[in-house]
Amino acid sequence: MVSAILLAAGEAKRMGRPKLLMPFGDNTVLERTLDNLLASEVDEVIVVLGARAEKMRKLVAGRGVKTVFNLDYHRGMSTSIIAGLKQVDSRTQWVMVALADQPMIGKETYNCLLRESLGSEKGIIVPRYKDRRGNPVIFSIKYKEELLQLVGDIGGRELLKKYQDDILEVAVDSESVTIDINTLDDYYSLFKSPQ
Protein backbone atom coordinates (compact mmCIF):
# COMPACT_ATOMS: atom_id res chain seq x y z
CA MET A 1 0.00 0.00 0.00
CA VAL A 2 1.20 3.51 -0.86
CA SER A 3 0.09 6.58 1.04
CA ALA A 4 0.63 10.05 -0.41
CA ILE A 5 1.06 13.02 1.89
CA LEU A 6 0.24 16.23 0.03
CA LEU A 7 1.86 19.20 1.73
CA ALA A 8 -0.53 22.15 1.47
CA ALA A 9 0.02 23.96 4.77
CA GLY A 10 2.60 26.62 3.87
CA GLU A 11 2.16 30.36 4.17
CA ALA A 12 3.53 31.16 0.67
CA LYS A 13 5.69 33.95 2.06
CA ARG A 14 7.81 34.25 -1.08
CA MET A 15 4.72 34.52 -3.25
CA GLY A 16 3.06 37.10 -1.03
CA ARG A 17 -0.38 35.64 -1.73
CA PRO A 18 -2.08 32.24 -1.30
CA LYS A 19 -0.52 30.46 -4.27
CA LEU A 20 -2.46 27.22 -3.84
CA LEU A 21 -5.73 29.13 -4.25
CA MET A 22 -4.63 30.82 -7.47
CA PRO A 23 -6.41 29.82 -10.70
CA PHE A 24 -5.03 26.95 -12.74
CA GLY A 25 -7.10 25.89 -15.71
CA ASP A 26 -10.67 25.38 -14.51
CA ASN A 27 -9.59 24.95 -10.90
CA THR A 28 -6.92 26.13 -8.49
CA VAL A 29 -3.28 25.11 -8.17
CA LEU A 30 -4.22 22.91 -5.19
CA GLU A 31 -7.09 21.20 -6.98
CA ARG A 32 -5.07 20.49 -10.11
CA THR A 33 -2.23 18.97 -8.09
CA LEU A 34 -4.62 16.91 -5.97
CA ASP A 35 -6.66 15.67 -8.93
CA ASN A 36 -3.50 14.53 -10.73
CA LEU A 37 -2.39 12.69 -7.62
CA LEU A 38 -5.81 11.08 -7.14
CA ALA A 39 -5.77 9.91 -10.76
CA SER A 40 -2.58 7.97 -10.03
CA GLU A 41 -2.27 4.54 -8.42
CA VAL A 42 -1.68 5.74 -4.84
CA ASP A 43 -3.91 3.99 -2.33
CA GLU A 44 -4.69 6.95 -0.10
CA VAL A 45 -4.06 10.69 -0.08
CA ILE A 46 -3.60 12.73 3.08
CA VAL A 47 -3.78 16.51 2.56
CA VAL A 48 -1.97 18.48 5.25
CA LEU A 49 -3.52 21.91 5.77
CA GLY A 50 -2.32 24.92 7.72
CA ALA A 51 -2.50 28.49 6.43
CA ARG A 52 -5.97 29.27 5.00
CA ALA A 53 -7.09 25.79 6.04
CA GLU A 54 -10.84 26.40 5.86
CA LYS A 55 -10.78 27.63 2.26
CA MET A 56 -8.59 24.71 1.25
CA ARG A 57 -10.65 22.17 3.15
CA LYS A 58 -13.70 23.24 1.09
CA LEU A 59 -11.73 22.74 -2.14
CA VAL A 60 -10.69 19.19 -1.28
CA ALA A 61 -14.00 18.13 0.29
CA GLY A 62 -15.77 15.30 -1.48
CA ARG A 63 -12.62 14.01 -3.17
CA GLY A 64 -12.13 11.00 -0.89
CA VAL A 65 -9.01 12.27 0.86
CA LYS A 66 -8.04 12.48 4.49
CA THR A 67 -7.30 15.99 5.75
CA VAL A 68 -5.26 16.92 8.77
CA PHE A 69 -4.64 20.38 10.20
CA ASN A 70 -1.04 21.07 11.15
CA LEU A 71 -1.12 23.43 14.12
CA ASP A 72 2.63 24.00 13.77
CA TYR A 73 2.70 24.80 10.04
CA HIS A 74 4.56 28.07 10.67
CA ARG A 75 7.50 26.01 11.96
CA GLY A 76 8.27 24.52 8.57
CA MET A 77 7.71 21.63 6.19
CA SER A 78 8.91 18.97 8.61
CA THR A 79 5.90 19.59 10.86
CA SER A 80 3.55 18.91 7.94
CA ILE A 81 5.32 15.68 7.04
CA ILE A 82 4.98 14.59 10.67
CA ALA A 83 1.28 15.54 10.80
CA GLY A 84 0.65 13.54 7.61
CA LEU A 85 2.66 10.52 8.74
CA LYS A 86 0.53 10.23 11.85
CA GLN A 87 -2.50 9.66 9.60
CA VAL A 88 -1.13 7.00 7.24
CA ASP A 89 -2.90 3.68 7.09
CA SER A 90 -1.37 0.95 9.26
CA ARG A 91 -0.89 -1.21 6.14
CA THR A 92 1.21 1.38 4.32
CA GLN A 93 4.56 0.18 2.99
CA TRP A 94 5.56 3.33 1.08
CA VAL A 95 4.96 7.02 1.77
CA MET A 96 5.05 9.55 -1.05
CA VAL A 97 5.75 13.12 0.05
CA ALA A 98 4.24 15.41 -2.59
CA LEU A 99 4.16 19.20 -2.86
CA ALA A 100 0.83 20.93 -3.48
CA ASP A 101 2.46 23.62 -5.62
CA GLN A 102 3.45 21.19 -8.40
CA PRO A 103 0.32 21.14 -10.60
CA MET A 104 2.22 20.10 -13.72
CA ILE A 105 3.06 16.59 -12.49
CA GLY A 106 0.71 14.20 -14.26
CA LYS A 107 -0.53 10.81 -13.17
CA GLU A 108 1.91 9.08 -15.56
CA THR A 109 4.89 10.54 -13.69
CA TYR A 110 3.43 9.60 -10.32
CA ASN A 111 2.73 6.08 -11.57
CA CYS A 112 6.24 5.71 -12.98
CA LEU A 113 7.69 6.50 -9.55
CA LEU A 114 5.21 4.18 -7.82
CA ARG A 115 6.08 1.26 -10.09
CA GLU A 116 9.79 1.82 -9.54
CA SER A 117 9.36 1.94 -5.76
CA LEU A 118 7.30 -1.24 -5.60
CA GLY A 119 9.87 -3.12 -7.66
CA SER A 120 12.97 -1.79 -5.91
CA GLU A 121 15.10 -2.99 -3.04
CA LYS A 122 16.03 0.63 -2.33
CA GLY A 123 14.16 2.51 0.38
CA ILE A 124 14.07 6.03 -1.08
CA ILE A 125 12.84 6.83 -4.58
CA VAL A 126 13.73 10.20 -6.11
CA PRO A 127 12.77 11.48 -9.56
CA ARG A 128 15.47 12.98 -11.75
CA TYR A 129 14.91 15.13 -14.81
CA LYS A 130 18.14 15.49 -16.79
CA ASP A 131 20.69 16.59 -14.15
CA ARG A 132 18.24 17.71 -11.45
CA ARG A 133 16.53 15.83 -8.67
CA GLY A 134 12.91 16.71 -8.03
CA ASN A 135 9.77 15.80 -6.14
CA PRO A 136 7.81 13.86 -5.03
CA VAL A 137 10.07 11.61 -2.98
CA ILE A 138 8.88 8.17 -1.91
CA PHE A 139 10.12 6.65 1.35
CA SER A 140 9.87 3.09 2.57
CA ILE A 141 7.84 2.87 5.78
CA LYS A 142 11.07 1.75 7.47
CA TYR A 143 12.00 5.45 7.57
CA LYS A 144 8.82 6.49 9.36
CA GLU A 145 10.41 6.92 12.79
CA GLU A 146 13.24 9.04 11.41
CA LEU A 147 10.83 11.16 9.40
CA LEU A 148 8.86 11.74 12.60
CA GLN A 149 12.02 13.27 14.11
CA LEU A 150 12.47 15.91 11.38
CA VAL A 151 12.82 19.54 12.48
CA GLY A 152 12.47 22.81 10.56
CA ASP A 153 11.76 23.58 6.91
CA ILE A 154 13.89 20.88 5.33
CA GLY A 155 11.49 18.15 4.29
CA GLY A 156 13.28 14.82 3.91
CA ARG A 157 16.61 16.22 2.68
CA GLU A 158 18.47 15.06 5.78
CA LEU A 159 17.50 11.46 5.09
CA LEU A 160 18.62 11.77 1.48
CA LYS A 161 22.04 12.91 2.70
CA LYS A 162 22.26 10.23 5.38
CA TYR A 163 21.11 7.27 3.26
CA GLN A 164 22.63 7.98 -0.15
CA ASP A 165 23.27 4.26 -0.71
CA ASP A 166 19.56 3.51 -0.29
CA ILE A 167 18.37 5.96 -2.98
CA LEU A 168 17.05 4.93 -6.36
CA GLU A 169 17.02 7.83 -8.80
CA VAL A 170 14.32 7.40 -11.43
CA ALA A 171 14.83 9.22 -14.71
CA VAL A 172 11.60 10.85 -15.85
CA ASP A 173 10.92 12.61 -19.13
CA SER A 174 8.88 15.40 -17.54
CA GLU A 175 10.43 18.59 -16.22
CA SER A 176 7.39 18.92 -13.95
CA VAL A 177 9.16 17.17 -11.07
CA THR A 178 11.59 20.11 -10.82
CA ILE A 179 8.97 22.88 -11.14
CA ASP A 180 7.18 24.32 -8.15
CA ILE A 181 5.58 27.71 -7.60
CA ASN A 182 7.44 30.07 -5.29
CA THR A 183 7.06 33.40 -7.10
CA LEU A 184 4.64 35.07 -9.47
CA ASP A 185 7.19 34.55 -12.25
CA ASP A 186 7.10 30.80 -11.52
CA TYR A 187 3.31 30.87 -11.69
CA TYR A 188 3.05 32.76 -14.97
CA SER A 189 5.78 30.69 -16.60
CA LEU A 190 3.61 27.57 -16.19
CA PHE A 191 1.13 28.95 -18.68
CA LYS A 192 3.84 29.21 -21.30
CA SER A 193 4.49 25.46 -20.96
CA PRO A 194 2.26 22.78 -22.47
CA GLN A 195 -0.18 21.51 -19.84
Number of domains: 1
| Sheet with the most strands, sense and barrel status | 8 strands, mixed
- The CATH superfamily is Spore Coat Polysaccharide Biosynthesis Protein SpsA, Chain A
Give, in order, the helices and strands: EEEHEHEHEHEEEHHEH
Low-confidence stretches: none
What is the radius of gyration? 15 Å
| Secondary structure: number of strands | 10
CATH class: Alpha Beta
CATH architecture: Alpha-Beta Complex
The name of the CATH topology is: Spore Coat Polysaccharide Biosynthesis Protein SpsA, Chain A
Characterise this structure.
The strands form two sheets. Strands 1, 4, 5, 6, 7, 8, 9 and 10 form an eight-stranded mixed beta sheet that branches. A two-stranded antiparallel ribbon has the order 2-3. The model has no long low-confidence stretch (mean pLDDT 91). Strand 2 and strand 3 form a beta hairpin. The protein is of the alpha/beta class and 195 residues long. The two termini are 29 Å apart. It has a single domain, classed as Spore Coat Polysaccharide Biosynthesis Protein SpsA, Chain A. It has seven helices and ten strands. 29% of the residues lie in helices and 23% in strands.
